[in-house]
Design goal:
Elements: E1 3-9, H1 16-24, E2 30-36, H2 43-53, H3 57-60, E3 61-65, H4 72-85, E4 92-95, H5 107-115, E5 120-124, E6 130-132, H6 136-152, E7 165-167, H7 169-177, H8 187-197, E8 202-206, E9 208-210, H9 221-239
Parallel strand pairs: 1-2, 1-4, 2-3, 5-8, 6-9
Antiparallel strand pairs: 4-7, 5-7
Helix pairs in contact: 4-7, 6-9, 8-9
Length: 243
């Protein structure tokens, strides 16, 4: 299955080369697209140099540099748009974080579920996944955010806020046709709402989620507040979609 893995990146220089190496080692049909928002720590420059220097990277690693930090959702969409316009003909699309919170070794599981006929697959922390290294405050926020999303949108999704996801080409097209309304991590909930309203088949599998050991989390209090507000507008649009 020819696969494009999209990595939304901002200040991930400590992680990015090792992660790309791990993903490429999954097999020759895997291509990686890094979308870097002009990271001040030089993430994009590191990858650009590696594409020039490392054997095989030029054919299998794509770097997209955006002028400024503009949110995870937009970065993922930029990678997907590149993939859909590519002549490589990808059969599957993956989004995941750049900090090893999502294990590269779990990618084949998601791809198998896509191949089984699902159009969207979520690597889920709930209800049966394992979370390692989260402080109590982060666990409480995640529990509340997901509970609110399930209450307001659909109980069928156990994990609205994790960005380890797998998509068929049709699912990617559905997302790209829908104008993005929210920036940041809240787009994870918005995109699931869009896919559910389109009637796509969604599956999940449990993952081991390990809190980042290198680098610094980009999630801050302002983004958390925006996410809690945004979920209500997403739920309204989900319940009363425009014709």
């Amino acid at each position: 299955m020819r696969t494009l893995v999209v990595l939304p990146s901002y200040n991930e220089s400590l992680n990015i080369l090792a992660l790309i190496e791990a993903l490429l080692s999954l097999g020759p049909e895997t291509t990686v697209c890094l979308v870097d928002d002009s990271s001040p720590d030089g993430t994009g420059e590191l990858v650009e140099q590696a594409i020039r220097d490392k054997a095989g990277w030029k054919a299998r690693v794509q770097l997209i540099t955006r002028a400024k930090k503009d949110g995870r959702g937009g970065a993922v969409r930029a990678g997907f748009a590149w993939g859909r316009g590519s002549s490589l003909g990808f059969d599957a699309y993956v989004e995941m974080d750049c900090d090893f919170s999502h294990e590269p070794g779990a990618v084949p599981i998601g791809l198998q579920l896509l191949a089984a006929g699902n159009e969207v697959v979520i690597g889920a922390r709930y209800p049966d996944g394992i979370i390692i290294g989260w402080p109590a405050s982060r666990r409480v926020f995640s529990f509340l955010a997901n509970g609110l999303a399930r209450l307001l949108i659909s109980w069928s999704i156990p994990d609205y806020t994790n960005g380890f996801r797998f998509y068929s080409p049709r699912a990617v097209d559905v997302l790209l046709r829908h104008a993005q309304q929210h920036k940041g991590y809240i787009y994870l909930s918005e995109s699931l709402s869009v896919l559910l309203n389109a009637g796509l088949k969604v599956a999940t599998f449990p993952i081991r989620f390990k809190n980042r050991q290198r680098g610094v989390s980009n999630t801050n209090l302002a983004e958390i507040g925006a996410a809690l507000k945004g979920i209500f507008s997403i739920a309204w649009a989900h319940r009363f979609p425009r014709s």
